Amino acid sequence: MDAEIGYLTPGRTRRRSIARTIFAGSIGNTVEWFDWTIYTVFAIYFSNQFFPSQDTTVALLATFSVFAIGFFMRPLGGWLIGTFSDRHGRRSALTLSILLMAVPSLVIALLPTYSQIGVFAPILLVLARMTQGLSVGGEYGAATTFLTESAPAKRRGFYGSFLFLSIALGLLIASGIAWVLTNNLNRTQMELFGWRIPFLIGGLASLIGLWLRRNVDETQAYKDMANKGEIPKRSLRWIWRHHRPAVLRLIGTSVLPAFSFYLFVSYLPIYAIQRGGATPEVAFRASTVSIAIFMCALPFFGRFSDRFGRKPQLIAFACAYLFFLYPVVNSVGSGFWSVLLVECFGLLAYGLYASIAPAMMAELFNTEVRAVGIGAFYNVVIALLGGTTPYLMAWLQSINLESWFLVYVCAGAAISLYSFIEMPETRGKTLD
Fold this sequence. Notes:
Layout: H1 2-50, H2 56-71, H3 74-88, H4 90-110, H5 114-117, H6 120-150, H7 156-184, H8 187-194, H9 196-213, H10 220-227, H11 236-242, H12 244-274, H13 280-308, H14 311-330, H15 336-354, H16 357-362, H17 370-386, H18 389-398, H19 404-422
């Protein structure tokens, strides 16, 4: 019996260690994307308090412009925190990124309004949001390197799948809290204090994530590099000069993904309402269910890539969008199942990519520039393409040409498909 216990204990310890690693690497994404999302979800309730105007639309647009500013801080965050990660370690970068999200969330939760402190209210809101943009941009590269460097080579796709799973979980929690608050507080209560509650929850949850991350081990890949001596400083120009094929491959493979998630989470429900005749309740219920299905599918897609390779999934993802996106989206109707099936097509196809994106990106770069290489260049693509998506969609809708956005996405699918076909298979590659 003792021998049995002694035999089983290392296995339990290892499983516990794996769970702790995945949880520590993922929890920050859940909290950060919760904090990032609640700004847009609750903007309608606090916009007039920071940007007072007789026209509520003007106040709301001003509030969303702050969102855009935060979005375009992401490349800077990817560069700064990525460089910090490559110089001082993955654990330190994870701690920094979640701290940069926790403090601004608490600041926004407690921030006096324009009527109380005047112009300082919107200024502080902008600064808080810019800091959160730095955090989100840095979190992606830091969490990607931590999860993939912590994984055994044969399970890197599975480990990496929890990155986007945690992002989807953050969105679901934000949606759930919005539902609870709006069903229990009236409009006046939401404007007075209700909108502050999710920011307070997010800030406190970030502090818990901060504590968890401070107690995880540094990755072995980083330890091995650090043990060799002084870690060299590498600029983005140096990375471009010495890792140009990897950078170009990262950019090409990120074009379609920059659209995909925003297309089906943000755009499709509105498209179903305006073009398909669905009610808002039906459209958003289908969207919520599809995100839950997408989230559950990711670990299975990650395992699949560990067994059969990265390229088959990536090529299938791009082909699905290139050949079927336009007719599938335009087939959306007013019923729940019609909207759900279209949502599932888009998100599950995207899941083929999202589940293995961290592993694929980590396998492009070596340890000394992995975090900054991923964080900086990926976030540039996301800012330029994903960040402009809401404005482009709104403009096309205003001139009744919203279907042309689908053509735009299909062009992105062609670019990424070419990149996926040309890239080498990296399943099982040893990270150097």
